[in-house]
């Protein structure tokens, strides 16, 4: 069956798969990524997983200053009472839905960096995210801090991978660029036989190159679905991937974090030499009805991260994985009139993994000494990113932040 016929069949039947049918620049086949797995004789390298929370996560209702009267006074309808918070010490605690992260904290596998921000805050989602992903707060930049590392190391294709439909600026360098593989596998209507779609992925002897490439594309979609959702024991076909209902806010990010991390886990376990993975979760722009929305998102984040951390703890390569969770900014201290919060400044960054030295880093910002109603950052974001570059990527962080010399945090056991 030629490539055009395959494509027409899938489109006519309603079978879609963003991973390969609509791949754009930087797209990489999942099968090719897995095919680059290192041999068992090669020791695993450290791996970085960057989790972006798009929309501006409310850090004050994530890592909660429950003992501070100013917290309760500024958001009487949004503040969590102390008895509901998961206490980390006598002053700070986790949101009550973050039970998995609390378990990682108790096991000293979770570090929380407090008050992270950048000079002269910008409350635009897009400008602020650009600053975080480029690592340059002063002027617009055209490369990401990981992209500059890719340039510097002359990294081969597949060194940095995003399991999202497009490549984030984070992974863009001047001469090197990361790859993207959408986590979305096959979306088949119930009347389409999965076995027939699988047959479309079989190549035939002497088949033209374009036709063979089309066949491998369908095979790739099936493999993505299998890794994310598993296999139905009754039919032997990939299970459908259930995506949770996450509010769309138009500020970026994907909706199925567990699915993205399942692909990362598979790559780590088979020895793929990728050093950096980028995944995301969107929907954190909580201007109204914040409590139910943020709890839904944080519960999804908690389930995905804690399950991934537990899975990674089972292998040598997995124990060399470090996960960093950040958002473009926090929210304002005072709640608004819509039971939500507006764009703010500083917030916490989470770092987790087997090699992470758990505990608090930095200083919790004051809730009374504010900058026009906003938190004053106590930790420069480049200190966090530079510490990750040094400890996980084993590179000189002073090379990647436009002349800024990061003050390194002892986040890793080395």
TrEMBL record:
Organism domain of life: Bacteria
Source organism (scientific name): Micromonospora qiuiae
Pfam families: DUF1501
Protein name, per record: DUF1501 domain-containing protein
InterPro entries noted in UniProt: DUF1501, TAT_signal
